[in-house]
Amino acid sequence: MMKLPRVECPSCTRQIAAGLVAGRLSKGRIWRHDAPDARRDAHGHLLSCAGSLEIVDLPYGQMEITIEEPEAAPEEEAMALF
């Protein structure tokens, strides 16, 4: 499991997860999120915050990766084929 670092959105100032940008270890792309005031378009759909998908600097040393070992399957008795 990997926990993404949270960074401040430059538009709404909320703490939002940021995913890595390929080839740029110090940069991240803010995940899409709704604006805090929940604006809607003419059809009633929520609009994403203007800061969604923005590329920002990632905080150094905040990436956390946890590798979980798969659970061992219970041993089954070997079946005789002949």
Structural class comes to mainly beta
N-to-C series of helices and strands: EEEEEE
Indicate the mean pLDDT: 78
List unreliable stretches of 5+ residues: none
Helix content: under 10%
Total beta strands: 6
Enumerate how many helices there are, as a single number: 0
Measured on Cα atoms, how large is the radius of gyration? Answer: 21 Å
Measured between the Cα atoms of the first and last residue, the distance is: 44 Å
Major beta sheet, specifics? Answer: 4 strands, antiparallel
Order of strands, widest sheet? 2-3-4-5
Shape: elongated
- The amount of beta strand, in percent, is 25-35%
Task: Describe the structure using short key phrases.
82 residues; two-stranded antiparallel sheet; 6 strands
Please give a structural write-up.
- The chain is an all-beta fold.
- The chain has no helices and 6 strands.
- It has strands at 2-3, 6-8, 15-21, 24-30, 55-57, 64-65.
- The strands form 2 sheets. Strands 2-3-4-5 form a 4-stranded antiparallel sheet, with no helix packed on it. A two-stranded antiparallel ribbon has the order 1-6.
- Strand 2 (6-8) and strand 3 (15-21) form a beta hairpin.
- The N and C termini lie far apart (44 Å).
- The model has no long low-confidence stretch (mean pLDDT 78).
